[in-house]
User: Which sequence fits this backbone?
């Protein structure tokens, strides 16, 4: 058979193209990094949680990569600072989906941003885990790709209500929240749930968080006979003013509620350190010290591992632990399948008591709230050490 | 309860009154309502906390540095947001330019300082948190001192009389050879210091908090509108009245309804006296 120069040239080019584009593909797929998008509000309002989560994310990625990666593939964390702005979160999400082609997304870290990006992620079938508390963010029918690693608002509320009624054994409760959308919704839900469980809600108020004097509302709560005050606000200024006012009034009513009441920012705003006593904020059993001053064994070991590598004194342990868990959950999904969205989601849907540092997560195809409700407890708000707290009185 | 209403009402009223005077001082020199007035109040608290608590400076040094910094912010306001729009005052472009600068100040403070309220230092350490605590009477004392100093400046000094001259008629003042631009800049620096003093004196009550900017912008504007634009005495009376009314409403109706009560009062007064309670009648040029 005679081969012309033209046929030879075409044949050679075809062979070269085949070798260039066809054969190496499986090799590239097996060695390319696992790209994890990390939507973090690292600056601007409400940046404290993301800064804590970020330390855990980096620690986990470095640890996995130092051990050789996942099936020989390195973890590559691609971070975008959303500044707590839903518009920036939407832009970053679209960039991650269409340009960066990440394999999974962790975050965002606040509910306002998550409300904006969850439908976008769902349309793109992007595997997404987040720690945002608003209940409606999790719906396996509408958002089969979205999984929660933190408690929901309902779980926080359950813990606060149970503590008031069953541990403090109070009958008359006042509910005070700020005037943000979150505060108004939380106060309404909390009041209804307390009443349903038999508590007498004697006073309900939404206060502007910048109000300089809390005496009027505290006085009304006292006159109404409140035996405990349930607080739903992210404002540390409002929290501290209420604690100071309680002391000035000579009233020893306990405060029970939002985790912001245990924030380190409060310390400098108190007129006396004693004003922070009898304040019980939402916390987590995995990150709480028992009566002997010990964390659960897994986290004792975890804190020892972090020593000298991750700063814990100015953040919360559960934020760092949550960041580590998020990366580990994605890595484990790839290890048990592949980086395809279907494989990752399939793995997460079958997770049962995944042993994380923040909690043991369990998901199913019909339940994407993964945090165990019994592990949501109340903490002694003023007892922070290494980002963890003592359990509030009444827990064993 | 009455003592509490009076103590905290007068205290926040004094802060509102000083912010009202800040608005007026800038307005008199330029005919511009600068929406950076509330931000200057916020900066007074933030700079005070920064210099004294965070950097550990003596209180007097911190106070002086705070005044200098706020005066500089006042000058920047004049240069960046006011001077470029003076030629087209009738188009009210200053609303945009001063609001934009106010937003920029707010964002920079949020990123560089904190979005959470920070502690403010005790000044004299008098009182234990009760109604005689310094956090309640210090703003009132500062407001009284500032009014006396301004009266002395405006009535007894040549510079003060020059301020009044450009406030009255800046064309005539220029024709007389007064340095209108320099006097305007000095007015903005002075306004910066008054705003800073408002935030510093009320720092123990309002804390060093970025959210105080918009709050003071609004509640500082109410006494200006109630008292009549450019009228300092009106702003002082309006500020104290607002503080007392707001605190009484907090006690009587509480929470969100107290803010509604303030809005209702504001609208009713403006309906009854559109130029404010102390505003004079406008002479029509013929």
Assistant:
């Amino acid at each position: 058979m005679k081969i012309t120069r033209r046929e030879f040239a075409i044949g050679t080019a075809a062979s070269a193209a085949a070798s260039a584009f066809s054969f190496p593909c499986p090799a590239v797929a097996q060695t390319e990094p696992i790209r994890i998008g990390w939507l973090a509000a690292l600056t601007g309002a409400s940046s404290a949680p993301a800064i804590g989560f970020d330390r855990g994310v980096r620690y986990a990625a470095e640890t996995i990569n130092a051990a050789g990666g996942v099936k020989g593939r390195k973890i590559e964390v691609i971070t975008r600072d959303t500044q707590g702005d839903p518009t920036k979160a939407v832009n970053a999400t679209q960039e991650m989906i269409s340009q960066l082609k990440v394999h999974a997304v962790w975050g965002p870290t606040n509910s306002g941003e998550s409300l904006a990006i969850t439908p976008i992620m769902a349309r793109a079938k992007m595997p997404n885990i987040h720690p945002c508390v608003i209940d409606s963010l999790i719906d396996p029918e509408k958002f089969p790709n979205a999984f929660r690693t933190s408690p929901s608002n309902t779980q926080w509320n359950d813990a606060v209500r149970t503590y008031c009624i069953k541990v403090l054994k109070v009958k008359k409760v006042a509910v005070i929240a700020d005037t943000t959308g979150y505060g108004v919704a939380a106060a309404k839900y909390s009041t209804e749930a307390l009443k349903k469980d038999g508590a007498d809600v004697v006073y309900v108020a939404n206060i502007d968080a910048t109000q300089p004097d809390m005496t009027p509302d505290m006085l009304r709560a006292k006159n109404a006979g409140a035996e405990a005050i349930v607080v739903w606000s992210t404002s540390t200024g409002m929290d501290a003013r209420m604690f100071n006012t309680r002391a000035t009034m000579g009233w020893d009513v306990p405060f029970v509620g939002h985790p912001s009441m245990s924030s380190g920012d409060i310390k400098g705003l108190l007129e006396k350190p004693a004003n922070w006593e009898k304040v019980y904020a939402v916390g987590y059993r995995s990150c709480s010290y028992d009566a002997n001053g010990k964390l659960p064994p897994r986290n004792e070991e975890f804190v020892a591992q972090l020593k000298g590598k991750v700063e814990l004194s100015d953040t919360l342990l559960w934020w760092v632990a949550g960041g580590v868990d998020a990366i580990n959950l994605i890595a484990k999904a790839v290890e048990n399948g592949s980086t395809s969205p279907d494989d990752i989601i399939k793995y997460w849907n079958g997770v049962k008591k995944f042993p994380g540092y923040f909690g043991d997560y369990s998901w199913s195809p019909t339940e994407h709230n993964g945090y165990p409700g019994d592990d949501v407890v109340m903490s002694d708000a003023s007892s922070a050490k290494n980002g963890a707290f003592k359990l509030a009185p009444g827990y064993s | 309860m009455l003592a509490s209403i009076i103590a905290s009402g007068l205290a926040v009223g004094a802060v509102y009154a000083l912010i009202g005077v800040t608005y007026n001082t800038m307005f008199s020199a330029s005919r511009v309502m600068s929406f950076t007035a509330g931000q200057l109040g916020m900066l007074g608290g933030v700079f005070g906390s920064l210099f004294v608590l965070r950097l550990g400076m003596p209180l007097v040094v911190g106070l002086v540095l705070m005044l200098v910094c706020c005066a500089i912010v006042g000058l920047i306001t004049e240069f960046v947001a006011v001077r470029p729009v003076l030629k087209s005052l009738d188009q009210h472009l200053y609303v945009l330019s001063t609001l934009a600068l106010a937003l920029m100040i707010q964002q920079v403070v949020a990123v560089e300082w904190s979005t959470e309220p920070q502690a403010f230092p005790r000044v004299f350490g008098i009182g234990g948190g009760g109604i005689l605590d310094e956090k309640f009477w210090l703003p009132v004392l500062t407001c009284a001192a500032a009014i006396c100093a301004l009266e002395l400046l405006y009535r007894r000094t040549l510079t003060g009389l020059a301020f009044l001259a450009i406030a009255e008629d800046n064309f005539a003042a220029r024709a007389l050879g007064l340095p209108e631009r320099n006097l305007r800049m000095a007015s903005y620096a002075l306004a910066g210091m008054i705003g800073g003093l408002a935030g510093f004196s009320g720092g123990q009550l309002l804390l060093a908090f970025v959210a105080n900017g918009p709050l003071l912008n609004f509640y500082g504007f109410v006494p200006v509108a109630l008292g009549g634009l450019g009228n300092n005495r009106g702003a002082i009376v309006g500020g104290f009245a607002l503080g007392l009314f707001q605190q009484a409403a907090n006690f009587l109706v509480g929470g969100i309804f107290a803010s509604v009560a303030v809005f209702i009062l504001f609208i009713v007064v403006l309906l009854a006296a559109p130029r404010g309670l102390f505003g004079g009648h406008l002479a029509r040029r013929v």
